[in-house]
Amino acid sequence: MTAIPKSHPRLNSLLIREKLVNGFDNNLVAKEGLLAHGRGEAFDYLIGEKTSKSAKEAIKAAAIMLKNAENSVISVNGNFAALCPKEIIALAKNTDSKIEVNLFYSSEKRKKAITKILKKSGAKKIFGLNKKSSTKLLGIDSARRIVDKDGIFSADVVLVPLEDGDRTIALKNAKKKIITFDLNPLSRTAETSDITIVDNVTRAMKLLVAESKKKGKKSIKYNNNKNLKQSILEIKKNLERRAKNA
Ligand code: PTJ
């Protein structure tokens, strides 16, 4: 592990990168997960590496949607497990959601490593591990089609972070409400989901956990297309400010 100077101006970003690299070394993260992270980093740079106003609105709506759900599931992939294990458990507890491991680049070795870190962080029951209770989602070619009958398959709301577009579309076709974290507001997942949180999952999950603890509000006016437009305009504003100061 390379020592990162504490005074580095992009310390947080480097620490996140290191978590991903460690996650890769420990079989949590797929090689392609490192590439996905690189894409995310580029967008994070464009949004100014902080949670925007539109992301905060999306987070509020997501907390309400999860709490109002009958059967909500948090879908966990390698990047999510490496970056936010404690927050996954806390969110599941606050919103009474199930946790399911669902991988694009699936292997038993990776599933084991992800299960281990989730259990270490306090998970009791994890879906998506038992072949006997698995079934297939229509419209997907990747291993992501294999889902748990009692988990994603029967869920009404699914949180799918850092997701590929095909599965988001398949889940929408299966009439599920979808919440996602995606730093790219132009991705198919961002455009297809019911709630897209355009923020780094490491910042946004902490805020979502805090929001999900709050009592009170049972509904919120929220429009994902408007919110995505706002995210894009926030990037534009940020770039204009940078160009002015260049
Ligand atoms: O663990 P697996 O096998 O299920 O594979 C997971 C990856 C992420 C490799 C897989 O889902 C994948 O290939 O995803 P995509 O299609 O590359 O989409 C990932 C999206 O997440 C991209 O739009 C990235 O910009 C975005 N992203 C990357 N890092 C972050 C992020 N969004 C929020 N926070 C991040 N830290």
How would you portray this structure in words?
There is one protein chain. The two termini are 34 Å apart. The chain is of the alpha/beta class. Helix 1 (11-25) runs antiparallel to helix 2 and helix 3 (53-68) crosses helix 9 (201-213). It contains ten helices and seven strands. The strands form two sheets. Strands 2-1-5-6-7 form a five-stranded parallel β-sheet, with helices on both faces. It has one domain (53-236): Phosphopantoate/pantothenate synthetase (Rossmann fold), CATH 3.40.50. Bound molecules: ligand PTJ. Residues 30, 32-33, 36-37, 39-40, 43, 77-79, 103-105, 162-164, 181-184, 187, 200-201 line the site of ligand PTJ.
Per-chain topology:
Elements: H1 11-25, H2 31-47, H3 53-68, E1 72-76, H4 78-83, H5 85-95, E2 98-101, H6 108-120, E3 134-136, E4 146-148, E5 157-159, H7 165-173, E6 177-181, H8 188-192, E7 195-197, H9 201-213, H10 224-245
Parallel strand pairs: 1-2, 1-5, 5-6, 6-7
Antiparallel strand pairs: 3-4
Helix pairs in contact: 1-2, 3-9, 3-10, 5-9
Bound molecules: ligand PTJ.
